[in-house]
Write a structure and sequence with these properties.
- There is one protein chain.
- The chain contains four helices and two strands, in the order ββαααα.
- It is an alpha+beta fold and about 170 residues long.
- It has a two-stranded antiparallel sheet.
């Protein structure tokens, strides 16, 4: 849809007398003037500029699955750092966008990413429990399955919410 500008005039009918008791029937007609402005913009550059920090933070947290289970401090440090980075990114993005009372795409994507980082931390805790129970092979297998599942689910949900926002 290209940019356009349309002006139209017409008559608007109201089924009210606007409190005038002299009207027999509650009906009024007034002229109206309509202006329709359609704008199209390429917003993918702005989108990536706003969300690159959030996606990099998620990927940093995601890297935890490839750190050996016995280096649990590294796994938790990356995840906690990523958590704070996403929260910081949300505040920066919110300050650069207009105020909104509704739950926006920005809120949805940041909330989704925070939730997934929390799940990654929970997976690290579970893997640590497996290592402490001397089930190292099971912990490695769990990390592989969880990493694939979480990455695919995060990508699918991001694509869904972004496409939903661009269609509406």
């Amino acid at each position: 849809m290209p940019d356009s500008f349309r002006i139209s005039v017409g008559v608007k009918k109201y089924e009210t007398a606007f409190g005038d008791p002299t009207f027999v029937e509650p009906h009024s007609e007034f002229s109206n003037f309509k202006v329709q402005i359609l704008l199209e913009r390429e917003s993918w550059g702005l989108f990536f500029k706003l969300f690159v920090g959030m996606y990099i933070s998620f990927l940093l947290s995601y890297v935890c699955f490839f750190i050996h289970n016995q280096n649990i401090e590294s796994r938790f440090s990356l995840s906690v750092g990523s958590l704070f980075a996403v929260i910081g990114n949300k505040y920066i993005v919110d300050s650069s966008l207009p105020e909104s009372n509704s739950f926006t795409l920005v809120d949805t994507l940041h909330g989704l990413t925070l939730f997934f980082i929390f799940i990654i931390v929970a997976c690290s805790v579970y893997a640590l429990q497996l290592v402490k129970a001397e089930k190292i092979e099971k912990a490695i297998s769990f990390d592989k399955r969880a990493s694939l599942l979480l990455l695919m689910l995060h990508l699918i949900l991001n694509a869904y919410f972004i496409l939903e926002a661009t269609i509406n």
